[in-house]
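Quick question: what would this complex look like in 3D?
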Amino acid sequence: MSATDTVDTRPPAGRTPSPRRPRRGRRRSLRSRLRRDWPLLAMAAPAAALLLVFHYLPTLGNIIAFQDYNPFVGDNPLEAFLNSEWIGFGNFEALFRDPLFWDAVRNTLSITAFQLVFFFPLPIMLAILLNSVVSGRVRGFVQSVVYLPHFFSWVLVVTFFVQMLGGAGLLAQEMRQAGYEPWNIMTNPDTFIVLVTAEAVWKDLGWGAIVFLAALSAIDQNLYEAAAADGAGRWRRLWHITLPGLRPVIVLLLIMRLGDALSVGFEQFILQREAVGREAAEVLDTFVYYQAISTQQWGLGAAAGLFKAAVGLALILTANKVAHRLGEQGVYSKS
Amino acid sequence: MKPSLPSASTDRRTMLRLLGLGAAATMGGGALAGCSKEAGSQGSATSADAIKAVLPTYQRAELLKPDIPGEGPIPDGYLSYPTELVDAITEQPGRGGPPIQTMSPWWGPTPPPLGRNSYLSAVNGKLGVEVNPSLQDGLTYADKLNAMLGARDVPELLSAPNWEVDKVARFSDAVKALFTDLTDHLQGDNAAKYPYLAALPTGAWEYSVWGGRLYAVPFPTDGPFAWAMFYRKDLLDAAGMAAPTSPEELYEFGKKATDPAKGVWAFGSVFEMVQQYFGCHQTWRKKPDGGLEHKFEDPAFEAALEFTARLFAEGLVHPDTVASKGADEKQLFNSGKILMYRDGLGAWQGMQSERSKELPTFNMQPLPVFGAQGAQPVIWGSEKPVFYTFLKKDLSAERVDEVLRVLNWCAAPFGSREFELREYGVEGQHFTRGADGTPTLTERGRAELGAQYTHIGGRVPVKVRSGDTPNFVQDYLGYYRKHIDQMEKDLFAGIKLELPANWSKIIQPTDDKLRDILRGRRPVSDLAQVRKEFLDTGGEEGRAFHEKALADNGR
């Protein structure tokens, strides 16, 4: 995909006959085009090779979703694929019949929905806020501080929360000293969704704001000046200039997030599973880990992966269509 | 520096699956039915007789008379360090082959790799062939192992703990596809070429047979108990508290010792030990009228569950244990934040030695096992080897010989220079010798040693007194001698079980439900339902499988 984009440097419109442009491309031979484009081809080749070797080739392995896959039959991995027994939709059937699977799907979707409402808008707000800070030094400092947690691993983030808010943590000990019964924050299944969202916000808020900051800097400053000269206040400028300027980026990220609706992370949930129990903390990825990887039901795991991919694709296509209807560019467009 | 080994097998876990079919699930299943088949292995068992035929001939190799001779599965004890060491091996094992890549588990900070590790250089110099170890975190070893086996990409020498091997589905297929058949090299008198491997107990070799062929070198256990309850004797003595001798006293102790305002809680994880106190078997026991009974069907299990759930409910368990997977309980115990927790007995000497450097009064002891209401406790254990070491498939006969000679070197017995070098490193660099001759690891020794040559292959286990753990050998062997008669008999000793897929699949969901009960998220009365779900979705299949294995072996 990226390879062809890069090879053909002309805009896509150049391929269809256009009355305004000469159709030079038709007349050029493959050879002369190669001579012209070889640096671009060379630059794209590694990425294309990576994509081929690490994405498209392994995709073929998805056939094990339709097998009772035994990695140890035959003399090599290829023979293992060929010699494993075909069982049709047996893995899917087992998956869809398993109430644990549906529990995991439900939890995953709840968390996605919750985070769309309570997490997704926050980086936008932070970006707008930072953008309005005039002092470069203050802004740089705040940015560094809020970016930093993104580079912590989940183990560290969860440990940090346990040390601060856990039953033997700082807050609980302070409350005990003051004679109060400490709150149960880390081990309450009912509020777990809030907890994981809070952790995600703490970790990724600053990082998520970067792309919006970039979009903000692309908005023409003259618009603000003109609007201010016409007497538009701070809020009107935000509403009529800033937000419309950000809209394509917001829509793009929203669609991509929807495509990932069935992935909400893995480590964060596996680490806190004991604390709140399976019913609250089981998401699709931990389900696959416990029921497919740990028990070496590779076929079952592949079936769950295919299900996830199919749902993601459907969501992306739908969301993109809706975006087009609303006059947005979306992730891609056909014409 | 011995790691603690979570030596409980999968059996210690428990199981089941949720009942009922969701509406959507029924629809989905119905739509696909008719054109498909169920996946998953049905399990298999190799009989004990087939195993006997391929074992190496046992030949005792002992350089020194033990001060406290071992009995059965209890290792020999030595109360003093020999002043004169001997060379156990006269011919260099290496034949100039390429480096041997190994992978083995380690519970602790990762030591520096080959090239930056003087301990490795020292031992490799003696071996005459390079061993290049890759140490993996023992707690997450299964993840790595599963991926490697699934990809059929294994190192030349792979050490795998028994409890991980038990969990791998179709392991006998994996063994045939990936590892070298050692039968011709080690069967019967052929083992005499490797005298220290021939000295490993026959009971350990029995477990190293898959499909009637010998595939691994076993690492015999240095004590068969799965767990012990450790307590801080120094802190209990200082507070004037006696060690509990009954479940009631254990509870009272918890009440008295827990003081959240000071950050002290009585307990870490204790459930496995409580089950043993209440007389609950690890997994199966024989019913008087024949047939097997799972522990969930035993009233003792319910009593243990109720007891432990109360400890959680009343806040006697450290919040970190409640809140996280694998809380660092060793750390909490070392710093006195918890006073009692269960761990493998292998953890003992290392923790005692390390911690007593900073806190000379530090004294951790295993709590003597007691029964509930006059009933006898049942101690969980098995004489299974701790690790199996496999050789990659398709090595030439000469290479197999070279690798086995290296393993033979690594198995050199106590009292030899080879043992000292493997266990403690080089004098002056990795250890210092006390006035009584016992080696004590230096900082460098602690940093560079990670059982790189110990967890591959096997060795005859011994317990040796060290300068910083003067009473350890007597304490350790005393604990075993006192309780060995209470250990449950392994119904399946010598039978190689490969469990059915449906059985493996119910382990985690059932664990989850029991944890919900322990943590108070579900009432104890839900156990009946959990038990029913467990039996319906794989438990009965597991029972039939295990009963058949016993019947086939005439037990």
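Answer marked as accepted. The mean pLDDT of chain B is 87.
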